[in-house]
Amino acid sequence: MKGDQTRRDLAVRTYEFAREIRIICKQYRKDGAEGSDIDQAIRSSGSIGANYLEANDALSKKDFIYRLRVSRKEAKECLFWLKLIQETNKSPYSERLLVLIKEADEIKRILSAIILKSGG
User: Fold this and answer.
1) Are 117 and 60 a contacting pair, CB within 8 Å?
2) What φ, ψ does residue 97 adopt, rounded to 5°?
3) Which is nearest to 38 in space by CA: 98, 88, 102?
4) Which of 7, 21, 5, 20 has the alpha carbon at shortest distance from 53?
5) Coil vs helix vs strand at 106
6) Distance between CA atoms of 26 and 33, rounded to whole angstroms?
7) Can you say whether residue 68 is alpha, beta or left, with left for phi > 0 and alpha for psi between -120 and 50 degrees?
8) Please, are residues 14 and 4 in contact by the beta-carbon 8 Å criterion?
9) How far apart are CA 113 and CA 116, in angstroms?
10) Number of domain units in the chain
11) What is the average pLDDT value for the chain, to the nearest integer?
12) Which residues contact 25 (CB under 8 A, 6 or more apart)?
């Protein structure tokens, strides 16, 4: 029962993370490199949760671990884009962005722990 609760909690957490990325990215300029970085952060943030949900519906352990690895890869990518946005933009939203950077790193670490625990 605890495993189901953990899965649901991480599913909710990854959804809320993607939602928050979308909300904060609306505050930034969308022209030039900033627009490209923001688009990448939005795509990768949503992919974290989507692949995590796919992992939970996997038909085999191998598929489960593969989907978790993809989700972790997307978390690492999102972390990269968020740091780039934060370091190249002067914004009143920098503190909020730092919270999201920390959350991306925590999600990545959680996914890594699940992969290791699952034998991957």
Assistant:
1) no
2) -65, -40
3) 88
4) 7
5) helix
6) 15
7) alpha
8) no
9) 5
10) 1
11) 90
12) 38, 41, 42
pLDDT digits (tens, 9 = 90+) for 15-26: 999 999 999 988
Domain boundaries, position 78: 2-117
- The Cα–Cα gap between 51 and 115 comes to 13
CA quadruple 92, 96, 101, 103: dihedral, nearest 10: 180
pLDDT digits 0-9 by tens, 71-90: 999 999 999 999 999 888 77
Q: What span, in angstroms and rounded, lies between the C-alpha atoms of 112 and 76?
A: 11
Query: Cβ contacts of residue 40 below 8 Å, gap of 6+?
Result: 77, 81
**What CATH number did the domain enclosing 83 receive?**
1.20.1440.60
Encoding tokens for residue 88? 């190249």
Q: Does this model's pTM top 0.85?
A: yes
